[in-house]
Amino acid sequence: MADPSPKRRFDTEAWRRRLGEGWAGGRTRARGYYDWALANDPVTAGFRRPGKPEKTAAGIALALVLAVVVFLLLFDWNWLRGPIGRWASAKYDREIVLAGDLDVNLFSWTPSVSVQALRIGGPDWAREQDTLRVGQIEASARLRKLLAGQIEVPALTVTRPDAVLIIDEEGRQSWALDPDRTDDSGQNLPAIQRLTIREGRLRFTERARNLTLDARVDARETAEGFEEDGERVGFRLIGEGSLNGEPLKLRVRGAPFINVRRNRPYGFTAELTGAGTTVSADGAITRPFDLRRFTADLTLEGRDLNDLYLITGIAAPNTPPYRLDGKLERNRSRWTFNDFAGRVGSSDLGGDLAVDRVNDRLFVEADLASRALDIDDLAAVLGAQPQVTSSGTVASSGSPSRLLPDAPLQVDRLRRMDGRLSYRAASVKRNDFEVREVELGAALDQGILNLDPVAFAFNRGALRGAARINATRDVPYTNLDFRLAGYPLEAIIPARNGAPTVTGVALGRARLEGPGASLHDLASNADGNLSLVVPQGQMRRAFAELLGINVSAGLLRLFSGDRSVTPIRCGVADFAVQNGTATARTLVIDTDVVLTQGTGTINLESETLNLRLDGETKQPRLLRAWAPITVQGSLVSPQVGVDTSDLVTQGGLAGALGALVNPLVALLPFVDPGLAEDANCGALIASAR
After folding, report:
1. Whole-angstrom Cα distance, residue 652 to residue 450?
2. Is the distance from CB of 589 to CB of 543 less than 8 angstroms?
3. Which of 55, 232, 339, 500 has the highest count of CB atoms within 10 angstroms of its CB?
């Protein structure tokens, strides 16, 4: 077998030879370029054989460099305090003063600066308080990173900082040195590896939310940090204040800053308690110190979701007590609260929430769902006052004497944000209305709130509609249109003696518009119409007879327990609504035995009704008392009675006839020939719809 080593030795030698030839060729070309420069470029020739001018220039340059170095070494940086302060004050339109020593060390791999007694005043609308006072700031930066266009701070020590941050009613921020700047780059801080804050104080005021906070801030650069609640922390912010007149507490804790890196998340915990709300977060800043990006496990707990507006600026409806857990994430201006789940009152609630700024306005998107909704919790959302038990469930949703909630719509909050909401309850806990599913949709744009759909599915039938609320006015103006389809009459009129009084389905429509800050105020001022139609059904014959006060038939059937029924040919109730008063235009109940027609009004402001029903029999009756039925009292618990005044007149006429003619003639006022005709149901129903 041949030895392969000569071949390998041959290849190696050839490679070395080619490399040497290439190197030699490169040197030859470089030498040629240099010779050409010597012959044609006087500067290059001057460096090769410097003459007196070149030597003089080099000496002057070296002397200048040495002079600059000596100058910087001996320079008193305090001479620049005044010029720096005047320049900064003019640039940022506020007083900026460096009252203490200023020292700079440039000749180091980590150049450093020390500033004492720094004072930054407030803007022209908040000059009564300085925005920042600092006893001393000591900071250093890595020269290598600076030359690469980056800032990395190996150490930062701040002693006795006192910051006063104010947001006024117009949303102006006192600490914004450049208020016209629209980006959020100011929240992207340089990486700080060792941070020390001694005796720090932070005072924050937001006038629109009546929010104040006075906090102390401390940070240590050592890995040991602080001992707090059995844990080691490197950063802590602890403060107390008030929110809308109620106590407020804030606590933020973070890991030590030692060896913080941008590619290593920085963990923190935070807890805010105030205005009946507790917000707890356990998360991490994904790229320290970029405060525009972080994630956290978030828990929200409180007495009413509406209170969250004071903390977040997001308008939410009134609710019973709640607790929600989910994942909070911030990515620049966009905040998300995803996959959250929990309870609101006795109902479960979950979904996703996103908050962003669109065209410089807050925009909120929410997709919410419940597996099992308690209808009392929804009533609280619509404005009813929940009665909460000690266990946190809702016992009832408001005053038993009132049907329409009177909680005012907070229009000022709606004007400050836009958004979209969808909500669906897959099932509803057992309730008197037999609601089994709920679907809600809402869109808010520039103070105009569109609710579409507002849908309730019952065991039989459905209520569906839409509403438009103009919240740009001082008093909101609402247009609504709701339709009821297929709702069972037996769910409206209770059974008697174990048998339904009436059966059938109801169709209805409500079209109303008017001003009002609450549902009750809207109804009190509304114009429009209300209609309810029963195309067909059945009624206990005893009650049908009593609609005409048929003593001989109705009372006999009623007291004998008769459960026979008579068909309802139609029932129509059509009301014209003007300034909160609904007046009956058509009020007809037509059965095979009695035609009943009515008049009257419903006062939506007082939630009372005053109706009168007059029945006419369709069959001859010997004993028939002409006495109208009255329906009066509150909408919640109406009282049904008989107007006996006509009955007295009828009895008086009978007595006079009997005295003058014959006792048998006294029966004539009670005899009804039964001449009532069927109502034109088709025309009545068409007009009511």
Report:
1. 60
2. no
3. 500
